[in-house]
Write a structure and sequence with these properties.
Two copies of one chain form a homodimer.
Chain A: H1 14-28, H2 34-40, H3 45-58, E1 61-64, E2 67-70, H4 74-82, H5 86-102, E3 105-112, E4 115-122, E5 133-135, H6 140-147, H7 151-160, H8 174-187, E6 190-193, E7 200-208, E8 214-223, H9 229-232, H10 235-253
Antiparallel strand pairs in A: 1-2, 3-4, 3-8, 4-5, 6-7, 7-8
The first copy, chain A, binds a DNA duplex (30 and 30 nucleotides) through helix 1 and helix 3.
Domain HTH iclR-type (chains A, B): 13-72
Keywords (chains A, B): DNA-binding, Transcription, Transcription regulation
Organism (chains A, B): Salinadaptatus halalkaliphilus
Chain lengths: 255, 255
DNA sequence: GATAGTGTTTTGCTATCCGGAACATTGATG
DNA sequence: CATCAATGTTCCGGATAGCAAAACACTATC
């Protein structure tokens, strides 16, 4: 069931909301029939059919014998933000190298609408996580990004969001978060110590452009058994700083 | 000016077409103001405003001081097809390795609606090409894919499309294409010899799943000066076969 | 052949979307 | 400060586009 579907209480263009409810149902499960999409959305059969026909004509949905699929044409819409700045493209290559060198999951994450968004990721073949959104406060990468903001900006974030408790370790008290961000600023890196998911640790550093603007956050995560304290506070941040510096150099001097 | 916008002659849900006209205008140029989008689309100012507000509420568009931007949320829609099969994810890593090893542009391409679509690419920081669509007949990767089809399927393709002439070398005669596909089948690889763009050569091979289904096409391309005949017909296809085989093995036995 | 399930088309109704106009805001200029 | 132009935001009445329900067509199964 698509979670971002149209709501009767929402303003705006209702037809557009219905279209996206349908697209999100397909996002969550491809190859659905019209009957299945009717069940997954709160739309009627003929509305589903009509929207699908339109989306198919526009090239955003593919109809096959067994059902409907999202088209690769959405790549054109997603690559526009993902290549918004050459830094994002440079980070892609770095994430790959980092993943290979550490033999762990490597990620490049940015913030959008107060959420951490996976832009690039090196890891398993199954779930690429790209495009997925996570709370800023419970991730090393998110904390790195928050640490770049002044207190007013962090206060606005706290006003607009809730410090959701995901594990026993998750920071849920604003004062604790301010203190943690201060630690991140001093250290130059952030650690997620099972704050997002039990058994998982992560380290992240900020990535700056040659103009010293924050580009995003470069991070590595893995099971606690493979990321002990000495590594998390020693070699790993060092390696991440090196890699972040490589991105900066690539941007300053070209490939 | 968005090229896939709504047309007065089209059937279907007109409101949805207007929404996508707007999204495509933003795809082509980000950071536009309402006035600019009104000029770029044939929509009126209040329609533009209304749709943008809806898209912003849905999280697909971001409003900033200087204009409107596409959200990373589109990654969620594009990653669904791009991770439709683990083979595509495996191909991503291989494309990177291939690009690094050859020091050329490396690509993984699939077919959708009779067009070649760049799914993964290793190359310059500027234009990543991902999501872009190209004619099948003028690309090595496209010819590899066409060579996998039987004559009926190729005939249907020829019926539905036009063999557009892009360079002097482009194949524009159906009989020539059939002959070329036969050559591709015999050789096991395809060459694009300045058929798509003057000065550019490419080589591509098919990538198969462990079930021997066609996954897509793995290719390398670069300027003719760097891709001479001996390389194009010798070491390069060999390397591509090796890499394609690696994908197959990865899929068969895991990472 | 009959039947159930699913996809496609039809159709009348009305609410939604639209576009034009009014209004609000902002920045620049004198 | 006042004025003005440009741009963004809201309002509003009308009509048509979108809707949902129903009818119809198609397919697979027994």
């Amino acid at each position: 069931m698509a979670t971002d579907g149209p709501s009767a209480d929402s303003a705006g263009v209702t037809t557009t909301r219905k279209t996206f409810a349908l697209l999100e149902a397909l996002r969550d499960e491809e190859g659905c029939t019209i009957t299945e999409l009717t069940a997954r959305t709160s739309l009627t059969k003929s509305t589903v059919y009509r929207h699908l026909q339109t989306l198919t004509e526009l090239g955003y949905v593919i109809e096959r014998d067994d059902g409907y699929y999202l088209s690769f044409r959405f790549l054109q819409l997603s690559e526009t933000p993902r290549t918004r700045t050459p830094g994002y493209t440079a980070a892609k290559r770095t994430v790959f190298e980092l993943g290979e060198e550490t033999d762990e999951r490597a990620v490049f994450i940015v913030e959008e609408n107060y959420e951490a968004v996976y832009i690039h990721r090196y890891g398993s073949l199954s779930d690429t996580m790209i495009g997925k959104r996570r709370p800023l406060h419970s991730m090393a990468s998110g904390k790195v990004i928050l640490a770049e903001w002044d207190d007013d900006a962090v206060a606005a974030f706290l006003e607009a969001t809730e410090l959701e408790q995901l594990t026993e370790n998750t920071i849920t008290d604003p004062d604790d978060l301010y203190a943690e961000l201060e630690t991140v600023r001093e250290r130059g890196y952030a650690v997620n110590d099972q704050e997002h998911m039990d058994g998982l640790r992560g380290v992240a550093v900020p990535v700056y452009t040659p103009d010293d603007e924050l580009l995003g956050s470069l991070g590595v995560f893995g099971p606690t058994t493979r990321l002990p304290d000495e590594y998390v506070h020693g070699e790993l941040p060092n390696r991440l700083w090196d890699k972040a510096g490589e991105i900066k150099v690539t941007l300053a001097y070209g490939e």
